[in-house]
Amino acid sequence: MKGFAHLSNVATLELNREACIGCGMCMAVCPHGVFTLQGAKAEIRNFDACMECGACAVNCPVDAIGVDSGVGCASGLINEWLAGISGRRTGGGGCC
User: Fold this and answer.
1) What pTM did the predictor assign?
2) DSSP code string of the chain
């Protein structure tokens, strides 16, 4: 998917650092390296790299992460990419 970029400052990603236990699971499952550990807690390192797949939220053992998966950049980018390679439009919604 070369040549495609995520939109700036539009991801639905939210992190509750107070609830975070610093397990690092978000870092392990995020395909774009959005998270880092800072002071034994997760921190959003690159907000705009979030593709809203939802892996971080699903795998957070204390529900410190929220994201509306399938509604943002990932879904839009995948649909545009598929349309470009197949010559047809795909339906929206439902990513990952």
Assistant:
1) 0.68
2) -TT--PPTT----EE-TTT-----HHHHH-TT--EEEETTEEEES-GGG-----HHHHH-TT--EE--TTSSHHHHHHHHHHHHHHSS--------
